[in-house]
Amino acid sequence: MFTNCLTINGPLNKSLNTKIILRKDFIRKDETACFYIRITINRKTNYISLNKFIKPSFWDEGKGIVKSQHPLSNKINHFLIKEKLKIDDILLNLQLQNKEISFNILKKTYSNNSEPLSFFDFFKKEIELMPGKYAKGTIKYYKKELSKLKKFRNTILITDIDLNFLNEYEFYLRNKLNNCTNTISGSFKAIKKLLNIAIRKNLITKNPFAHLKIRYEETHKEFLTIEELKSLEKLLIKNIPEKLKNVLRYFLFACYTGVRYSDMERLKSCNINNNQLSFKQHKTKEYITIPLTRHAIKHLTKKEPEEKLFRVITNQKTNEFLKIIILYANINKNISFHCSRHTFAVISLTIGIPIEVISKILGHKDLKTTQIYAKIVDKLKFKEMEKWNNL
């Protein structure tokens, strides 16, 4: 048995308290929870993650130990004692030396005295926590990024990631994997996000990206014009395979509403009421309402409330069929399903819908994201005005 709580009152008039706790407010997919050391300084509380996990049923809250029923109870309890004693010893030394005591100083000192954490292990555990919070495509993307890092180095400690590491990794991505600037930008954004999570979990104290600007090159966003949409509409009354017409119907519906593929495949008839489409976005987890125009409504059929709005096939197959559909319509553009959002945004701006309204319909959290389309429309205006010179 060990004492799971230490209170120190010293010459700095600092009231300090440390205690090992199992955070049951966040349970992982494998039904385990993480151990933390809770530190209280002058009634303000912070936590240091011990990066060890057990099922809550094995934790004795009263005694502050792992129950003997757990096969590794002795080993885990020994680890908990050792880590708590480290922190208690740091606090006591700071007190005896009459030095300032703060969470930042404590975490930094503790981090220097602890074994560095594998970034791969941390990365993998964060991916395990993603289901339910992120789309399948996003989780797949993070797994791909983890795989790329493992090819770069066999082992990476979380403390290894500094400016030098990032510069070397950028060189590897650009020159060995032939990644373009925007692909590298995506890889760096993934690492940056994970390091910010590590800071929140008190595993590191700073993020090297604070001193590094992630470069991004503006790309061309392909979209369809009103005339091209009309050409696609005409295909629905022509003799083309029904499987193509099926894809074309929900693609056109997306062009008139801006709905993402991840939402399109989940939409049901009950999401429509009084010519309004209301649903919780899969990507942002926020609710949006989209007024339906006659162009969108004509592609709907009467169904039971729990029936899907459309028979949506996989994203990959959808895009394959769209390439065939575009050929049928004699449109010379590289179109994917996501182009429907670009089409909705550009045409909406062109016909005078306020950008703030478009931003709400698209579910953008930041108006800056929608303003990209405003730039596209401005360029279109200049291009169209050039026609006067040809008269």
Question: What would your notes on this structure say?
Answer:
- This protein has 391 residues and is of the alpha+beta class.
- The protein is built from 14 helices and nine strands.
- The protein is elongated and about 85 Å long.
Short description:
This protein is of the alpha+beta class and 391 residues long. The chain has 14 helices and nine strands.
| Secondary-structure content class | alpha+beta
What's the N-to-C terminus distance? 92 Å
The whole-angstrom Rg is 28 Å
Largest sheet: 4 strands, antiparallel
Proportion of strand residues? 5-15%
The coarse overall form would be elongated
Total of helices: 14
The percent of residues in helical segments reads 40-55%
Uncertain parts? 8-13
Mean pLDDT: 86
> What is the succession of H and E elements?
EEEEEEHHHHHHHHHEEEHHHHH
Strand arrangement, major sheet = 1-2-3-4
Number of strands: 9
Question: Which key terms come to mind for this protein?
Answer:
four-stranded antiparallel sheet, alpha+beta, three-stranded antiparallel sheet, 47% helix, 391 residues, 13% strand
Give the helices and strands, then pairings.
Elements (H helix, E strand, L loop, with lengths): L4 E5 L5 E9 L9 E9 L2 E11 L4 E2 L4 E2 L6 H24 L6 H11 L5 H10 L7 H17 L10 H14 L4 H20 L25 H10 L6 H16 L3 H4 L7 E2 L2 E5 L6 E5 L2 H4 L17 H14 L10 H12 L4 H8 L4 H19 L6
Helix pairs in contact: 1-2, 3-4, 7-8, 8-11, 8-12, 12-14, 13-14
